[in-house]
Specification:
The protein is an alpha/beta fold. The protein has three domains: 82 residues, 2-Layer Sandwich (Gyrase A, domain 2); 191 residues, HUPs (Rossmann fold), CATH 3.40.50; 172 residues, Isoleucyl-tRNA Synthetase, Domain 1. Strand 7 and strand 8 form a beta hairpin. Helix 18 crosses helix 20. The radius of gyration is 28 Å and the shape is globular. The two termini are 34 Å apart.
């Protein structure tokens, strides 16, 4: 917020040669605190203004006048700005105390954004490979709401497609009804893997699978009965994981939901002259992209057909301002084709469709594969994380009340944070050891900082009341600067669909406060105690809110 004000002042000083938003992107934080709080480099302006960077810096510095600015120094081509720390401290902390968990929130805009995420495949286990879409999508939905939108959370289940033809064939050949009812996902996975092993040397199995899926699309009752059974059994298991993660959805309408909505879309494509017959299949030709396949030679529909129907439905049903698809990098071409087809259909809202890609969860450097049975089950990882957290509690705080609950919050939080602290587009190598490491850059470290503050507030008998903030100590200013940035981080995290910004921010804030705590006596019974506790209380508010945006709870004790 301060940076915005400074950028606006510099823009005025430059006679609007650069906009405030352009200048804000150029602002830097000096490496040495003695050089100021904000620096503006003038190198890029030299050519435009036909002056030396040093002269430009000197001219700007003379004009920077504001109650928020204490002093301005010029060092070479840099304008170094020292903020009025007392004024900013007072403003930031009073705002947090007034707004509490609404700090950083935007006013509601009464617009819906639809977020399609998680979307596991029915009759397949919920693996670590599904974690990324689930937690990134949930964090995106949370930050959308923090930014004033109404987030519509959709779990677009993979409950249709050729894999069900394979599963039906596999069940008829090798299925054991009693075994599947006792342990549905594990048994269905077993026969699904067997199908792919056998199909490598028996191509007729794939032909049978295609025929089975076509009969499913045509409404064959036996096939539909098996499909409903697979779906219900899978959903029951998925929901146990969603409950553990604390994640809920507004809709579980998967691919099958759009079966009766595709013909209208195909007809519209025909009417608009967009369908072309190619080798017996219908496609939409696209400039600079491969053709988008709409129906196969046997008339069966594809992902693209159902995704077109889904986009049309969501736009109309929810009057969606934006629609996000939180799906892995490998589907980038599919979404480029999808959005291009909608654009060619004449819908200008195609620009409001956004693919939110992310890197893969790798095991031993390779993608996890359900077909080959090489998966790490998310339920197993969560259980192990919770057990590790419980062992830590037994060692360090055996008398803790509600140990089971706290272990769950810490263990699950560790798994979620470990994913979200990474840049979204990067691949992540699965490492149980790293997830279970509760020291360093982890969710439990941030949770523990919140717990430390909660303990301070309790021991210091903190009472929230109106007071002024002064004499907090020299180590408070870096914390204040971070607190001041929180609304900007929340906004950028949503606009860039990047939860890692909030995760990294929470680590910086926790580290800065712990440094303050290490150098400052807070519980000394002097006239400054309640003020320092009030400052700590503000940090706790923001830490808890940042964690909640990531989908992580903050226990009061650990």
């Amino acid at each position: 917020m301060i940076n915005k004000s400074i950028a606006a002042l510099i823009s005025i000083a430059l006679n609007n040669e650069l906009s405030a938003s352009e200048i804000e992107k150029l602002l830097e934080k000096p490496k040495n605190i003695d050089l100021g709080d904000v620096a503006f480099p003038c190198f890029t302006l030299a050519k435009k203004l036909k002056k030396s960077p040093q002269l430009i810096a000197s001219e700007i510095s003379i004009q920077l006048k504001s109650e928020w600015i204490q002093k301005v120094n010029v060092v070479g081509a840099y304008v170094n700005i020292f903020i009025n720390q007392q004024m900013v401290t007072e403003s930031v902390l009073q705002t947090i105390l007034s707004e509490k968990d609404k700090y950083g929130s935007k006013q509601p805009v009464k617009e819906n954004v639809v977020i399609d995420y998680s979307s596991p495949n029915i009759a397949k286990p919920f693996s670590m490979g599904h974690l990324r879409s689930t937690v990134i999508g949930n964090a995106l939905a949370n930050t959308a709401q923090k930014n004033g939108y109404n987030a519509v959370r959709i779990n677009h289940l993979g409950d249709w497609g050729t894999q069900f033809g394979k599963l039906i064939v596999a069940y008829k050949l090798w299925g054991d009804k009693e075994a599947i009812e006792a342990s549905p996902i594990q048994e269905l996975l077993k026969i699904y893997v067997k199908f792919h092993e056998m199909a490598e040397t028996n191509e007729s199995l794939n032909e049978q699978a295609r025929a089975s899926f076509k009969s499913l699309e045509d409404g064959d009752e036996e096939s539909l009965t098996l499909w409903r059974w697979f779906r219900d059994a899978s959903l029951k298991e998925f929901n146990s994981i969603y409950n553990l993660l604390g994640i809920c959805f507004d809709s579980y309408s998967g691919e099958a939901f759009y079966n009766d909505k595709m013909d209208v879309v195909i007809e519209e494509l025909k009417e608009k002259g967009l369908l072309t017959l190619s080798d017996g299949a219908y496609v939409v030709e696209l400039e600079d992209l491969p053709p988008c396949l709409i129906t196969k030679t046997d008339g069966a529909t594809l992902y693209a057909t159902r995704d077109l129907a889904a986009a049309m439905y969501r736009k109309k049903q929810y009057n969606a301002k934006k629609i996000y698809y939180v799906v892995g990098n490998e589907q980038s071409l599919h979404f480029k084709q999808l959005f291009k087809v909608i654009e060619k259909m004449g819908y200008d809202w195609s620009k409001d469709l956004h693919h939110v890609p992310f890197g893969m969860m790798l095991k031993d450097g390779r993608k996890m594969s359900t077909r080959k049975g090489k998966v790490v089950l998310l339920a197993d990882v969560l259980a192990e994380a919770i057990q590790t957290a419980k062992r830590n509690i037994e060692e360090k705080n055996p008398a803790l009340e509600q140990k089971e609950l706290v272990a769950k919050l810490v263990g699950v939080g560790a798994v979620i944070f470990n994913d979200l602290k990474n840049d979204r587009l990067n691949d992540i190598e699965f490492s149980l050891e790293q997830m279970m490491n509760f020291e360093g850059e982890t969710g439990p470290y941030v949770q523990y900082t919140f717990v430390r503050i909660s303990s301070l507030l309790e021991k210091g008998e903190f009472i929230e009341k109106k007071l002024q903030f002064e004499n907090l100590g020299e180590y408070a200013w870096p914390v204040i600067q971070l607190l001041e940035q929180y609304p900007v981080i929340v906004q950028k995290s949503y606009e860039q669909a990047d939860p890692s910004q909030i995760a990294k921010y929470s680590l910086l804030l926790a580290r800065a406060f712990n440094k303050y705590y290490a150098h400052t006596k807070i519980l000394v019974n002097d006239e400054w105690k309640q003020m320092k506790l009030s400052f700590a209380f503000c940090v706790a508010i923001v830490l808890k809110d940042a964690l909640s945006l990531l989908g992580i709870s903050a226990p009061n004790k650990m």
